[in-house]
Write a structure and sequence with these properties.
THDP-binding; 7-stranded mixed sheet; 2 domains; 14 strands; single chain; alpha/beta; 5-stranded mixed sheet; Rossmann fold; Transketolase-like_Pyr-bd
């Protein structure tokens, strides 16, 4: 049973911005590059506190990525953020060649990810960015569960990473339930609730929905473990194999296409190390549409109620 409590809804983009600003007071060589949407991605917090280290480039994502790579080669720690659809796609070549090929430390914020960006519609809903980014060599890919974790992950990435990092986060306020003082470990997953019948492996905003789904499943006699995979690359193989051996069934949940995302990453581990029945819950190979976030999550089967229903049916079929 989940004992996690919502401390109040807060957007993960704000947690990211707070993390960058806090790290800015520690690292005097940290610089931030803006893409004309500074407030939308939380970087206004840093810009107001350290205006001498904030550089606005306008809507020029490809240029920003290339400049960031150059700054990293001169011992700066560059952070840039824009909507994930622009970071992962419009600037994909510069991230691949200028940043990843040179293996330079650049922190990239992929904002407004997932279907829950809502009214902005399909053109602004990044549903394939995990697939694109995690295929690139050298890069670390983090998808924090809430605002507190987004802040902790951002600070950890700036302090500890020795190469490029992509941090994925959303726009809408979501339940903030992890500890403000958490010890965030890049590459380490977390078992939030233990269980024996099935493991629900989730990432990003879907972790809270998975926790709520586990409560619904408990009412139906299903003992579900919930695992937070906040680092999709490198993924925590040891934890995934361990929970697979314990439950015998795994369901993954993500605000992303079912192709190439968290589910694919988990399947790559389990099919080679401990093959068991798996189900992948995500966007079913289609574009999203405009709507309120809660309406879209319901339509595409990504809220707690729909996740619980899908997991229950899967367990019933397999047992």
């Amino acid at each position: 049973m989940s004992n996690f409590i919502n401390q109040g809804n807060k957007a993960t983009r704000i947690g990211f911005g707070e993390g960058v600003a806090e790290a800015g007071s520690i690292f005097q060589n940290l610089v931030v590059l803006g893409a004309d949407i500074t407030g939308s991605v939380g970087l206004n917090i840093f810009a107001e506190r350290f205006p001498e280290r904030f550089f606005s480039f306008g809507i020029a994502e490809q240029n920003i990525a290339a400049v960031a790579a150059g700054m990293a080669l001169t011992n700066k720690i560059p952070v840039f953020s824009t909507y994930a659809v622009f970071a992962a796609f419009r600037a994909a070549d510069q991230i691949r060649i200028s940043i990843c090929y040179n293996n330079v430390k650049v922190i990239i914020g992929g904002a407004h990810a997932g279907i829950s960006v809502g009214p902005d519609g399909a053109t602004h809903q990044a549903l394939e960015d995990i697939a694109v980014i995690r295929s690139l060599p050298n890069i670390t890919l983090i998808s924090p569960a809430d605002a507190n974790q987004a802040k902790a992950a951002t600070i950890a990435a700036i302090k500890e990473a020795d190469g490029p990092v992509y941090i994925r986060f959303g726009r809408e306020p979501v339940p903030n339930f992890t500890s403000i003082n958490q010890d965030f470990k890049i590459g380490k997953g977390e078992i939030l609730t233990d269980g024996t019948d099935v493991a629900i492996v989730a990432t990003g905003h879907m972790v809270w929905e998975a926790l709520m789904a586990s409560k619904e499943l408990e009412k139906k006699g299903i003992d579900a473990a919930v695992v937070n995979i906040h680092t999709i690359k490198p993924i925590d193989k040891e934890l995934l194999i361990s929970i697979a051996k314990k439950t015998g069934l795994v369901v993954t949940v993500e605000e992303h296409q079912i192709h190439g995302g968290l589910g694919s990453a988990v399947a790559e581990v389990l099919c080679q190390e401990y093959p068991i029945p798996m189900k992948i819950i995500g966007m079913p190979d289609c574009f999203g549409e405009s709507g309120k976030p809660e309406e879209l999550l319901q339509k595409y089967g990504l809220n707690a109620e729909a996740i619980a229903k899908s997991v229950f049916q899967f367990v019933k079929e397999q047992k």
